[in-house]
Each structure stands twice: as C-alpha cells, then as structure tokens.
Amino acid sequence: MALLRGAEAAADVAGAVIRPFFRAGVTSDLKSDASPVTIADRTAEQAMRAVLSERFPGHGILGEEFGLQNPGSELRWVLDPIDGTRAFITGRPSFGTLIALMDGDTPIIGIIDQPVTGERWVGARGMATRFRGPFGGTAGTRPCPAIARAELGATTPDMFVGPDATKWARLTGSVGRTYYGGDCYTYGLVALGQIDICVDATMKIWDWAALVPVVEGAGGRVTDWNGQPMHPDGDGRTLAVGDPALLPQVLDILAS
Fold it and tell me: How far is CA 124 from CA 100, 117, 212, 235, in A?
C-alpha cells in the first residue's frame, strides 16, 4: 500500500536524522509554551516533510515544528518528529517519532517509531497493528477486565491540575500500579499488552493522532475523557485502554 510505504519511508528518514544527535550533547530552546525543541526535532520534521511532499504532493502536512501546508486537502499527514523531547535531551530512549495520516478528522494510519532501539509500531484502519523490534514482543493488547489489577501510565502527574488532579488521584488509587514517563512509548506498550491504561491531559493532535490506529489495531480503545473519539478541536484529555472492558470503569472515575 503506497500510503503505508510512504509513512514508513518518512519514519526511516526521521530516524536517520535523529540517531546521530542522541546523547550527543544537543542543546534545546524553549518554545512559547515552555516545551523544549532541538535541532533534531526541526531537522527530522523537515526530512519527513520532504519525503511526504515528494510522494503525495496533494496531501496536507501538519507538523509540530513547522505548521500546516496544503490546508485544503482532506488527507493530511500529522507529524511529531520527537514526541518526548525531554526524554531525548536527557538521553532516555523513551521518546518516539509519530506519523499519522488523517482522513478529515479521523486517523487512518499511525506509526510510533523509536529510532534508537529500532522498535516500530504500524497501525492502519481495518488492519491489525504490526510491531517489529529487537527485544521481542507481539502486537496485541492483553485481557485485564478488573481495574484493580491494571497497570496505569501517564507522561507526568504535573499535567493534572485543579479538578483533574482529584480525578487522577482517584484513578491511581483504583489501579494496581502507576508509572510515569514514556510519552508515546507508553502507548506502544499498551499495544504490546504490557500496560493496560494510559491517561494524559494536554495532548495536541500531533501527540495523539498516530496513537489511535496503533492502539485500536492492537485491540484497545482510544477516546477522550468523555468516551468520545479524539477530535482535532478537543481539549487534549486522552484515554487509552488495552482491554475495552476497562473503558467504562475508567470513564466513570474521570467523569466523577
């Protein structure tokens, strides 16, 4: 399929750009939202844009670093060259490159690529998620119908403020264990059946679009905190579960 081949080619070129910068003393700048950005982020996005523009000149491209081109196109690539820049600049291989293809407001292709470890998740609408990596693992979520036994992940507890902090405390008190860090990598672990729930509160479209086909193609669900499909105009509150039986239990806590 040409679209999947193009998405993987973009992931390949991003990885080739990113790897030489990893643990090489790269400095970072702060963007207007106080999040860090490096030369690796910017160069990798430019490389992906070049690949996708050449292969699909009529498609739109929205990237975290360089905005939107071809805004009138119904098919739009959504790129996050390094999801987890804080992990990248501190030498932790828990970041990833995210590539999604949106058909209108719906993600139809998603890739999570970890360019240092060589792990890659590929999801597409109507297809089972594929995974490759040197450490083993098979794409597919695991059964976990009881929330008290679930493994829960989130990027950081700092994102949960005000009423969200109370909901987060209730959720962490309801599960088996809670882990922090990992950004998109944690969602990849949901798709491998290693973690059962991921919750975040400040996701932009380039943070979540690629995750939807990957997790759902592995048997899980991705929604907002109201149980609705993620939407470009949403509030960034994201929930992923490996076992769909967990969804109403988590939603009940997040809605209370």
Answer: 9, 22, 9, 24
Compute the average pLDDT of residues 237-252: 98
- Per-residue model confidence (pLDDT) at position 32: 66
Task: In whole angstroms, give the CA distance from residue 211 to residue 111.
Answer: 7
Fold classification of 2-131 is Fructose-1,6-Bisphosphatase; Chain A, domain 1 (3.30.540)
Tell me the domain boundaries of the chain.
2-131, 147-255
Query: pLDDT (tens digit, 9 = 90+) per residue, 74-124?
Result: 999 999 999 999 999 999 999 999 999 999 999 999 999 999 999 999 999
Token pair 């479209």 is found at 205
Strands 29-30 vs 36-37: parallel, antiparallel or unpaired: antiparallel
Q: Could you tell me which CATH number the domain at 147-255 has? A: 3.40.190.80
